Amino acid sequence: MVKCKTVAVIGGGVSGLAAAKAFDERGHKVIGFESSHDFGGVWEPSRSYPGVQTQSPKELYRYTDMAMPDDYPQWPKGPQVHAYLHSYADKHKLGRLFHLNTKVTGMERRADGQAGWTLTLENAGSTRTQDFDFVAVCTGQFSYKNTLTHPGQEEFVAQSGQVMHSSDYTDPEIARGKHVVVLGGSKSSTDIAVNAVQHGAEQVTMVYRKNVWRIPYFIGGINFKRLLYMRAQEMQFNSWGRGPLKKLFAAVTKPLVWANFRGLETMLKMQLGLKKWNMVPDMPIEKEACCSLPLVTPGFFEALKTGKLRTVLGTYQQYVGDSVMLTTGEKLRCDVSVLAVGWKLGVPVLPDEYREKLVAKDGQYRVYRLAVNPDLPDMGFVGFNSSFCTILSAEMIASWLVRFADGQLVNQPSDAAMRSNIEMMLNWRRNERPSAKVYGGLCSAPFHFKHFDELLADMGAGKAKRSNPLAEQFSFPNADAYGEFLASTPQYTAG
Ligand SMILES: Cc1cc2nc3c(=O)[nH]c(=O)nc-3n(C[C@H](O)[C@H](O)[C@H](O)COP(=O)(O)OP(=O)(O)OC[C@H]3O[C@@H](n4cnc5c(N)ncnc54)[C@H](O)[C@@H]3O)c2cc1C
């Protein structure tokens, strides 16, 4: 009989909701903590910039037991995702499990000699502690802003210049009539640059160091979900753990794979006019495909054509008067400087001695199945396996984690097996697939199917593939099908 545990879930975003549901469903006593006033994490409206929408099509950004509403567009807007997450919390009555406005500020191993952790909790100025048998950390990768300051910033701000992190660009009126400079080349920077142009900015300039491949929502008129999310496509990337036969197959098919990706690059160059805009990346697309691969913000190339938006390859050197001086020597007039410089990875609530065990010196995370570390007992991470379909990934790993915590995986890993797998994955990222090092290695894309196959095998799923082999090879991870696969795993209840 599996013993009922008291489980803390830290964070009330996509991952926290998945974790709370998974542990609650197995009969554990779940208590969730969310520092904000509401669920949703990055989709909570006060945290997202105007016009934000998903990169994933709606069929790929959902839990297995709840589709997004029919009247949602193919790429739902931020408030729609937020409403969807609320409906999901309502469907599973997850609200009763969470304490909102409650921040976890610290954790220590329990002093009473029991397994588990003592969390320090802060709410409305008061602090208390509480013991838990297991902790699911679901704090996301977008909770702690990267900060950056440049010489001359104080004087620039004193002269009424504005400097803000991309997540603080929440009101498009900020841009109206202004010279806006956006630092960074990620999706958030193109989203903000386009938004500023569309809201009457005088001039917008995007300054970034390196061209990257950007995927349009439709490639040659076809929704990218039909081209890029398939087992057949995934097999072309150099995944981990390939045996001699798979390596031989990869060597034989290398010219075909090469031709496939050059064809894709040619299509992107032609469709987007990358040469004309000096935006052709140096890196082959197959080497870059990972969670940081951005989609093209609708209106981006149109804004370049109007001249209201320009791009410059370089970075800031310093603020000078009402301008920004770039490393290229160019001086840009600037009223509003938006720093789209991303987020700090990390789990700040972890004591240093455990953080050192979790994160290697080169910033790579040491996690088995992107979820647990043998040196951090009674703890797991939901959301570290982010992907191009993160809601499904979060649900899959939450379902795996509860079984891991309960010793109910069919392939319950030994301590030695976890350590050896972690070393193998680190070696793969460092030597065979450097793009997998992005975000400390916390990304399962583009290997969605392989990752899910491993999780389902661990859980002992009776079914892990669709009956139609063509659908299995040539279509995207289907959330309904994954619901069936999860239902085919051995079921149990803690008591
Ligand atoms: C603009 C944008 C668009 C995106 N689009 C897509 C997409 O199309 N497809 C896709 O797959 N992914 C997308 N992502 C990635 C997205 O982050 C994930 O899909 C998903 O929302 C992550 O959820 P999460 O719960 O893991 O993290 P978060 O949403 O970051 O939630 C973490 C929660 O933890 C809380 N928290 C943090 N620390 C503490 C603490 N100490 N105590 C209590 N609470 C705490 C935070 O307040 C937050 O609510 C997008 C991200 C952004 C920013």
Short description:
A five-stranded parallel sheet has the order 3-2-1-7-18, with helices on one face. Strands 8-17-9-10-13 form a five-stranded parallel sheet. It is an alpha/beta fold and 495 residues long. The chain contains 15 helices and 18 strands.
Features:
about 500 residues; about 15% strand; single chain; binds flavin-adenine dinucleotide; FAD/NAD(P)-binding domain; 5-stranded parallel β-sheet; globular; alpha/beta; 15 helices
Structural features, described:
There is one protein chain. With 495 residues, the protein is of the alpha/beta class. The protein has two domains: 6-144 and 344-487, FAD/NAD(P)-binding domain (3-Layer(bba) Sandwich), CATH 3.50.50; 147-341, 3-Layer(bba) Sandwich (FAD/NAD(P)-binding domain). The protein has helices at 14-25, 78-91, 153-158, 187-198, 225-228, 231-234, 244-272, 285-288, 300-306, 352-358, 390-406, 415-432, 448-459, 469-474, 479-487, and strands at residues 6-10, 29-33, 98-99, 102-109, 117-123, 126-132, 134-137, 162-165, 179-183, 203-208, 218-219, 222-223, 309-313, 316-320, 323-326, 331-333, 336-339, 379-381. Strands 3-2-1-7-18 form a five-stranded parallel beta sheet, with helices on one face. A hairpin with a 7-residue loop joins strand 4 (102-109) and strand 5 (117-123). Helix 1 runs parallel beside helix 11 and helix 11 packs parallel to helix 13 (448-459). The chain starts with 5 loop residues before the first strand and ends in an 8-residue tail after the last helix. The structure holds flavin-adenine dinucleotide (FAD).
